[in-house]
Specification:
This protein is 39% helix and 16% strand. It contains 13 helices and 13 strands. Bound molecules: pyridoxal-5'-phosphate. Pyridoxal-5'-phosphate binds next to loops. Keywords: Lyase, Pyridoxal phosphate.
Length: 381
Protein backbone atom coordinates (compact mmCIF):
# COMPACT_ATOMS: atom_id res chain seq x y z
CA UNK A 1 0.00 0.00 0.00
CA UNK A 2 1.82 3.10 -1.15
CA UNK A 3 -0.79 5.88 -0.99
CA UNK A 4 -1.05 7.74 2.28
CA UNK A 5 -4.27 7.56 4.19
CA UNK A 6 -5.58 9.42 7.22
CA UNK A 7 -6.08 5.98 8.73
CA UNK A 8 -2.26 5.82 8.91
CA UNK A 9 -2.25 8.54 11.59
CA UNK A 10 -1.20 7.34 15.00
CA UNK A 11 -3.55 8.49 17.73
CA UNK A 12 -2.29 8.24 21.29
CA UNK A 13 -5.23 6.67 23.12
CA UNK A 14 -3.44 6.22 26.44
CA UNK A 15 -5.06 8.32 29.14
CA UNK A 16 -8.33 8.43 27.11
CA UNK A 17 -10.18 5.89 29.28
CA UNK A 18 -9.68 3.36 26.50
CA UNK A 19 -10.35 -0.28 27.50
CA UNK A 20 -8.00 -1.44 24.80
CA UNK A 21 -5.05 0.78 25.76
CA UNK A 22 -5.61 0.80 29.51
CA UNK A 23 -5.33 -2.94 29.96
CA UNK A 24 -1.59 -3.47 29.45
CA UNK A 25 1.67 -1.69 30.33
CA UNK A 26 2.85 0.86 27.78
CA UNK A 27 5.37 -1.39 25.99
CA UNK A 28 2.54 -3.72 24.89
CA UNK A 29 0.68 -3.16 21.59
CA UNK A 30 -2.98 -3.89 22.32
CA UNK A 31 -4.64 -5.80 19.46
CA UNK A 32 -7.57 -7.29 21.35
CA UNK A 33 -11.00 -5.73 22.05
CA UNK A 34 -13.09 -4.84 18.99
CA UNK A 35 -12.66 -1.14 18.52
CA UNK A 36 -10.34 0.55 16.05
CA UNK A 37 -7.45 2.93 16.64
CA UNK A 38 -8.96 5.45 14.25
CA UNK A 39 -10.71 8.78 14.64
CA UNK A 40 -14.48 8.74 14.25
CA UNK A 41 -15.77 10.07 10.90
CA UNK A 42 -15.52 13.90 10.65
CA UNK A 43 -19.33 14.14 10.23
CA UNK A 44 -19.74 12.43 13.62
CA UNK A 45 -17.25 14.72 15.33
CA UNK A 46 -18.93 17.80 13.85
CA UNK A 47 -22.40 16.70 14.94
CA UNK A 48 -21.15 15.94 18.46
CA UNK A 49 -19.29 19.25 18.63
CA UNK A 50 -22.43 21.15 17.70
CA UNK A 51 -24.48 19.34 20.29
CA UNK A 52 -21.85 19.90 22.98
CA UNK A 53 -21.87 23.59 22.07
CA UNK A 54 -25.65 23.61 22.68
CA UNK A 55 -24.73 22.76 26.23
CA UNK A 56 -28.07 21.22 27.24
CA UNK A 57 -28.10 17.52 28.06
CA UNK A 58 -31.58 16.71 29.34
CA UNK A 59 -33.61 13.53 28.89
CA UNK A 60 -33.92 12.50 25.31
CA UNK A 61 -35.53 10.10 22.84
CA UNK A 62 -34.52 8.51 19.55
CA UNK A 63 -35.88 10.90 16.89
CA UNK A 64 -37.80 9.81 13.80
CA UNK A 65 -34.98 11.16 11.68
CA UNK A 66 -32.59 8.59 13.19
CA UNK A 67 -34.96 5.72 12.48
CA UNK A 68 -35.41 7.00 8.92
CA UNK A 69 -31.63 7.16 8.50
CA UNK A 70 -31.30 3.53 9.63
CA UNK A 71 -34.20 2.45 7.41
CA UNK A 72 -32.55 4.15 4.47
CA UNK A 73 -29.30 2.35 5.33
CA UNK A 74 -31.08 -1.03 5.56
CA UNK A 75 -32.78 -0.39 2.24
CA UNK A 76 -29.66 0.63 0.37
CA UNK A 77 -27.32 -1.96 1.91
CA UNK A 78 -29.53 -5.03 2.35
CA UNK A 79 -32.70 -4.26 0.35
CA UNK A 80 -34.58 -4.65 3.61
CA UNK A 81 -37.35 -2.40 4.90
CA UNK A 82 -37.96 -2.86 8.63
CA UNK A 83 -40.95 -0.84 9.86
CA UNK A 84 -40.38 2.05 12.29
CA UNK A 85 -42.68 0.47 14.86
CA UNK A 86 -40.40 -2.56 15.08
CA UNK A 87 -37.36 -0.63 16.36
CA UNK A 88 -36.20 -0.68 19.98
CA UNK A 89 -33.35 1.65 20.92
CA UNK A 90 -30.77 0.35 23.35
CA UNK A 91 -27.59 1.48 25.10
CA UNK A 92 -25.67 -1.50 23.72
CA UNK A 93 -26.00 -4.82 22.01
CA UNK A 94 -24.70 -7.12 24.74
CA UNK A 95 -27.55 -6.24 27.10
CA UNK A 96 -29.95 -7.10 24.27
CA UNK A 97 -28.43 -10.57 23.87
CA UNK A 98 -28.90 -11.29 27.56
CA UNK A 99 -32.40 -9.76 27.55
CA UNK A 100 -33.48 -11.89 24.58
CA UNK A 101 -32.48 -15.08 26.35
CA UNK A 102 -34.20 -14.06 29.58
CA UNK A 103 -37.34 -12.64 27.99
CA UNK A 104 -37.94 -15.09 25.15
CA UNK A 105 -36.98 -18.44 26.68
CA UNK A 106 -37.68 -20.27 29.93
CA UNK A 107 -35.30 -21.58 32.61
CA UNK A 108 -33.79 -24.89 31.46
CA UNK A 109 -34.59 -24.27 27.80
CA UNK A 110 -31.86 -25.26 25.41
CA UNK A 111 -30.16 -22.42 23.56
CA UNK A 112 -28.13 -23.27 20.47
CA UNK A 113 -25.03 -21.31 19.53
CA UNK A 114 -22.58 -21.95 16.67
CA UNK A 115 -19.18 -21.71 18.32
CA UNK A 116 -16.36 -20.59 18.76
CA UNK A 117 -18.13 -17.28 19.08
CA UNK A 118 -18.04 -13.86 20.74
CA UNK A 119 -18.34 -14.87 24.35
CA UNK A 120 -21.57 -13.01 25.25
CA UNK A 121 -23.53 -15.31 22.94
CA UNK A 122 -22.61 -18.23 25.18
CA UNK A 123 -22.54 -16.24 28.40
CA UNK A 124 -26.16 -15.09 27.94
CA UNK A 125 -27.58 -18.65 28.19
CA UNK A 126 -25.09 -19.59 30.91
CA UNK A 127 -25.90 -16.59 33.08
CA UNK A 128 -29.64 -17.28 32.73
CA UNK A 129 -29.51 -20.97 33.73
CA UNK A 130 -30.39 -22.18 30.27
CA UNK A 131 -28.80 -25.24 28.69
CA UNK A 132 -26.20 -24.35 26.11
CA UNK A 133 -25.49 -26.38 22.97
CA UNK A 134 -22.36 -25.22 21.16
CA UNK A 135 -22.57 -26.24 17.50
CA UNK A 136 -19.17 -26.61 15.88
CA UNK A 137 -18.03 -24.09 13.33
CA UNK A 138 -16.08 -26.20 10.85
CA UNK A 139 -13.86 -25.56 7.86
CA UNK A 140 -15.74 -26.10 4.62
CA UNK A 141 -13.07 -25.74 1.98
CA UNK A 142 -11.21 -22.74 3.24
CA UNK A 143 -14.13 -21.06 4.98
CA UNK A 144 -15.53 -21.45 8.47
CA UNK A 145 -19.22 -22.23 8.73
CA UNK A 146 -21.71 -23.98 10.93
CA UNK A 147 -22.03 -27.75 10.80
CA UNK A 148 -25.65 -28.18 9.73
CA UNK A 149 -25.83 -31.85 10.77
CA UNK A 150 -24.87 -31.02 14.37
CA UNK A 151 -27.22 -28.06 14.23
CA UNK A 152 -30.17 -30.26 13.33
CA UNK A 153 -29.26 -32.74 16.09
CA UNK A 154 -29.57 -29.92 18.60
CA UNK A 155 -32.66 -28.31 17.11
CA UNK A 156 -34.45 -31.67 17.35
CA UNK A 157 -34.16 -31.84 21.12
CA UNK A 158 -37.47 -31.28 22.90
CA UNK A 159 -36.19 -28.45 25.07
CA UNK A 160 -34.50 -26.51 22.23
CA UNK A 161 -36.09 -23.07 22.02
CA UNK A 162 -33.68 -20.51 20.61
CA UNK A 163 -30.80 -20.14 18.21
CA UNK A 164 -28.24 -17.37 18.69
CA UNK A 165 -26.53 -16.42 15.46
CA UNK A 166 -23.60 -14.11 14.95
CA UNK A 167 -23.60 -12.89 11.34
CA UNK A 168 -21.00 -11.88 10.22
CA UNK A 169 -19.43 -14.34 12.59
CA UNK A 170 -16.98 -13.19 15.24
CA UNK A 171 -14.49 -14.80 15.37
CA UNK A 172 -14.14 -16.67 12.08
CA UNK A 173 -14.99 -13.77 9.76
CA UNK A 174 -17.74 -15.65 7.91
CA UNK A 175 -20.69 -13.95 6.23
CA UNK A 176 -23.47 -16.50 5.95
CA UNK A 177 -24.67 -17.05 2.38
CA UNK A 178 -28.34 -17.01 1.45
CA UNK A 179 -28.24 -20.81 1.07
CA UNK A 180 -26.79 -21.23 4.56
CA UNK A 181 -29.31 -18.84 6.07
CA UNK A 182 -32.16 -20.61 4.30
CA UNK A 183 -30.95 -23.98 5.63
CA UNK A 184 -30.76 -22.54 9.15
CA UNK A 185 -34.18 -20.96 8.76
CA UNK A 186 -35.66 -24.27 7.58
CA UNK A 187 -34.46 -25.87 10.83
CA UNK A 188 -35.69 -22.98 12.98
CA UNK A 189 -39.10 -23.29 11.33
CA UNK A 190 -39.27 -27.09 11.48
CA UNK A 191 -38.38 -27.18 15.18
CA UNK A 192 -40.06 -23.90 16.05
CA UNK A 193 -37.11 -21.94 17.42
CA UNK A 194 -36.71 -18.22 17.93
CA UNK A 195 -33.63 -16.75 16.31
CA UNK A 196 -31.59 -13.92 17.78
CA UNK A 197 -29.29 -12.60 15.08
CA UNK A 198 -26.37 -10.45 16.25
CA UNK A 199 -25.46 -8.51 13.11
CA UNK A 200 -23.23 -5.88 14.70
CA UNK A 201 -20.42 -6.51 12.14
CA UNK A 202 -22.74 -6.34 9.11
CA UNK A 203 -21.16 -3.24 7.57
CA UNK A 204 -17.60 -4.52 7.75
CA UNK A 205 -17.63 -6.78 4.71
CA UNK A 206 -14.13 -7.07 3.25
CA UNK A 207 -14.78 -9.65 0.52
CA UNK A 208 -17.31 -10.00 -2.28
CA UNK A 209 -19.81 -11.50 0.19
CA UNK A 210 -23.17 -9.80 0.78
CA UNK A 211 -24.72 -9.36 4.19
CA UNK A 212 -28.27 -10.70 4.35
CA UNK A 213 -30.23 -9.95 7.54
CA UNK A 214 -31.74 -13.22 8.77
CA UNK A 215 -35.11 -11.52 9.29
CA UNK A 216 -35.15 -10.39 5.66
CA UNK A 217 -35.25 -13.98 4.31
CA UNK A 218 -39.03 -14.30 4.38
CA UNK A 219 -42.07 -13.51 6.54
CA UNK A 220 -41.66 -16.58 8.73
CA UNK A 221 -38.05 -15.61 9.49
CA UNK A 222 -39.14 -12.05 10.25
CA UNK A 223 -41.73 -13.31 12.73
CA UNK A 224 -39.36 -15.54 14.70
CA UNK A 225 -36.29 -13.28 14.70
CA UNK A 226 -34.82 -10.53 16.82
CA UNK A 227 -32.25 -8.61 14.76
CA UNK A 228 -29.56 -6.76 16.68
CA UNK A 229 -27.50 -4.08 14.95
CA UNK A 230 -25.48 -0.99 15.85
CA UNK A 231 -23.35 1.72 14.26
CA UNK A 232 -20.67 1.15 16.89
CA UNK A 233 -18.27 -1.18 15.03
CA UNK A 234 -18.81 0.33 11.58
CA UNK A 235 -18.13 3.92 12.59
CA UNK A 236 -15.90 3.21 15.59
CA UNK A 237 -18.19 4.80 18.17
CA UNK A 238 -18.58 1.87 20.59
CA UNK A 239 -17.74 4.03 23.61
CA UNK A 240 -20.84 6.17 23.02
CA UNK A 241 -23.22 3.24 23.53
CA UNK A 242 -26.02 2.79 21.04
CA UNK A 243 -27.56 -0.29 19.44
CA UNK A 244 -31.01 -1.22 18.22
CA UNK A 245 -33.22 -4.27 18.02
CA UNK A 246 -35.69 -4.88 15.22
CA UNK A 247 -38.55 -7.17 16.25
CA UNK A 248 -41.41 -7.62 13.80
CA UNK A 249 -43.40 -10.02 15.97
CA UNK A 250 -45.48 -7.89 18.35
CA UNK A 251 -45.66 -10.57 21.05
CA UNK A 252 -41.89 -10.97 21.10
CA UNK A 253 -41.50 -7.21 21.11
CA UNK A 254 -43.82 -6.90 24.08
CA UNK A 255 -41.98 -9.59 26.02
CA UNK A 256 -38.65 -7.99 25.26
CA UNK A 257 -39.90 -4.54 26.29
CA UNK A 258 -41.43 -5.88 29.50
CA UNK A 259 -38.15 -7.54 30.47
CA UNK A 260 -36.12 -4.40 29.91
CA UNK A 261 -38.56 -1.91 31.46
CA UNK A 262 -36.82 0.09 34.14
CA UNK A 263 -33.57 -1.82 33.66
CA UNK A 264 -31.97 -0.67 30.42
CA UNK A 265 -31.65 3.09 30.17
CA UNK A 266 -32.39 4.94 26.96
CA UNK A 267 -29.32 5.55 24.79
CA UNK A 268 -27.64 8.82 25.68
CA UNK A 269 -28.16 11.98 23.67
CA UNK A 270 -24.66 12.08 22.18
CA UNK A 271 -24.88 8.46 21.05
CA UNK A 272 -28.09 9.24 19.14
CA UNK A 273 -26.60 12.34 17.55
CA UNK A 274 -23.49 10.41 16.50
CA UNK A 275 -25.51 7.51 15.09
CA UNK A 276 -27.69 9.76 12.96
CA UNK A 277 -24.70 11.67 11.59
CA UNK A 278 -22.87 8.41 10.83
CA UNK A 279 -25.77 6.80 8.99
CA UNK A 280 -26.64 9.90 7.00
CA UNK A 281 -23.20 11.34 6.20
CA UNK A 282 -20.61 8.66 6.94
CA UNK A 283 -20.61 6.77 3.62
CA UNK A 284 -17.40 8.16 2.14
CA UNK A 285 -15.46 7.59 5.37
CA UNK A 286 -16.90 4.08 5.57
CA UNK A 287 -15.81 3.23 2.01
CA UNK A 288 -12.26 4.43 2.75
CA UNK A 289 -12.25 2.45 5.97
CA UNK A 290 -13.17 -0.79 4.18
CA UNK A 291 -10.40 -0.23 1.67
CA UNK A 292 -7.86 0.32 4.46
CA UNK A 293 -9.03 -2.75 6.37
CA UNK A 294 -8.88 -4.90 3.22
CA UNK A 295 -5.28 -3.86 2.74
CA UNK A 296 -4.44 -4.60 6.37
CA UNK A 297 -6.00 -8.03 6.01
CA UNK A 298 -3.98 -8.73 2.87
CA UNK A 299 -0.86 -7.56 4.70
CA UNK A 300 -1.43 -10.12 7.49
CA UNK A 301 -1.85 -12.85 4.90
CA UNK A 302 1.42 -11.83 3.25
CA UNK A 303 3.27 -11.82 6.57
CA UNK A 304 2.05 -15.27 7.63
CA UNK A 305 2.77 -16.89 4.26
CA UNK A 306 5.42 -19.55 4.77
CA UNK A 307 4.74 -19.88 8.51
CA UNK A 308 2.65 -22.56 10.21
CA UNK A 309 -0.12 -20.03 10.94
CA UNK A 310 -3.39 -20.84 9.15
CA UNK A 311 -5.97 -18.22 8.25
CA UNK A 312 -9.15 -19.22 6.42
CA UNK A 313 -11.11 -17.01 4.04
CA UNK A 314 -11.68 -13.67 5.69
CA UNK A 315 -15.04 -12.25 4.62
CA UNK A 316 -15.83 -9.63 7.25
CA UNK A 317 -14.77 -7.85 10.48
CA UNK A 318 -11.38 -6.38 11.36
CA UNK A 319 -10.63 -9.40 13.55
CA UNK A 320 -8.22 -11.95 12.04
CA UNK A 321 -8.81 -15.50 13.24
CA UNK A 322 -5.47 -17.25 13.27
CA UNK A 323 -4.98 -20.96 13.81
CA UNK A 324 -1.72 -21.49 15.71
CA UNK A 325 -2.38 -25.06 16.80
CA UNK A 326 0.67 -26.27 14.86
CA UNK A 327 2.88 -24.37 17.34
CA UNK A 328 1.36 -26.06 20.40
CA UNK A 329 1.68 -22.96 22.55
CA UNK A 330 0.40 -23.63 26.03
CA UNK A 331 -1.05 -20.18 26.79
CA UNK A 332 -1.03 -18.04 23.63
CA UNK A 333 -2.22 -14.91 25.41
CA UNK A 334 0.65 -14.99 27.92
CA UNK A 335 3.12 -16.06 25.27
CA UNK A 336 2.38 -13.06 23.04
CA UNK A 337 2.08 -10.70 25.97
CA UNK A 338 5.68 -11.54 26.82
CA UNK A 339 6.51 -10.65 23.21
CA UNK A 340 4.76 -7.30 23.66
CA UNK A 341 1.41 -7.90 21.89
CA UNK A 342 -1.98 -8.11 23.60
CA UNK A 343 -4.13 -10.52 21.56
CA UNK A 344 -7.45 -12.22 22.31
CA UNK A 345 -6.91 -15.87 23.15
CA UNK A 346 -9.11 -18.24 21.15
CA UNK A 347 -9.90 -20.15 24.30
CA UNK A 348 -12.15 -17.31 25.46
CA UNK A 349 -14.34 -17.93 22.39
CA UNK A 350 -14.20 -21.71 22.70
CA UNK A 351 -11.20 -22.57 20.49
CA UNK A 352 -7.89 -23.23 22.24
CA UNK A 353 -4.82 -22.84 20.01
CA UNK A 354 -6.33 -19.94 18.02
CA UNK A 355 -5.80 -16.23 18.49
CA UNK A 356 -7.89 -13.27 17.36
CA UNK A 357 -5.91 -10.28 16.15
CA UNK A 358 -7.58 -6.89 15.75
CA UNK A 359 -6.25 -5.23 12.62
CA UNK A 360 -8.37 -2.08 12.87
CA UNK A 361 -5.32 0.08 13.39
CA UNK A 362 -2.72 2.11 11.44
CA UNK A 363 -0.55 -0.06 9.21
CA UNK A 364 2.64 0.85 11.09
CA UNK A 365 1.11 -0.48 14.32
CA UNK A 366 0.06 -3.69 12.60
CA UNK A 367 3.55 -4.07 11.16
CA UNK A 368 5.13 -3.74 14.59
CA UNK A 369 2.71 -6.21 16.11
CA UNK A 370 3.28 -8.72 13.29
CA UNK A 371 7.06 -8.35 13.68
CA UNK A 372 6.81 -9.16 17.36
CA UNK A 373 4.43 -12.09 16.78
CA UNK A 374 6.60 -13.65 14.08
CA UNK A 375 9.86 -13.19 16.00
CA UNK A 376 8.25 -14.85 19.05
CA UNK A 377 7.05 -17.78 16.91
CA UNK A 378 10.48 -18.09 15.27
CA UNK A 379 12.05 -18.44 18.69
CA UNK A 380 10.06 -21.67 19.15
CA UNK A 381 11.75 -23.50 16.34
C1 LIG B 1 -20.62 -10.02 17.91
C2 LIG B 1 -20.59 -8.89 18.90
N1 LIG B 1 -21.73 -8.55 19.53
C3 LIG B 1 -21.76 -7.53 20.43
C4 LIG B 1 -20.61 -6.81 20.72
C5 LIG B 1 -20.64 -5.69 21.71
O1 LIG B 1 -21.77 -4.89 21.57
P1 LIG B 1 -22.00 -3.61 22.48
O2 LIG B 1 -20.69 -2.92 22.65
O3 LIG B 1 -22.99 -2.78 21.73
O4 LIG B 1 -22.58 -4.09 23.77
C6 LIG B 1 -19.41 -7.16 20.10
C7 LIG B 1 -18.16 -6.46 20.44
O5 LIG B 1 -17.08 -6.84 20.12
C8 LIG B 1 -19.40 -8.22 19.16
O6 LIG B 1 -18.29 -8.56 18.50
Amino acid sequence: MSQESHFDDIIDRRGHYSDKWGKYPSHVIPMWVADMDFDAPPCVKEALQQRVDDGVFGYTYAPKSLVQAIQQHCQSHYQWQPASAHFIHLPGLVCALHLCVRALSEANDRIIVPSPVYYHLTKAPEMSDRKLDRIPFVLKGNRWSVDLVSLEESCKKDDASMLLLCNPHNPGATVYTREELQAIHALAKRYNLYVVSDEIHCDLILSDATHIPFASLNEDAAQRTVTLMAPSKTFNIAGLGYAFAIIANSQLRQRFNKARAGLTPAPNLLALVAAEAAYTKGQAWHAELLEYLRNNCTYIRQRIAGTKIQMAKHEATYLAWLDLRAYQIDKPHDFFLKAGVGISDGEGFGAAGFIRLNFGCPRSQLEQAMNRILIALDSLS
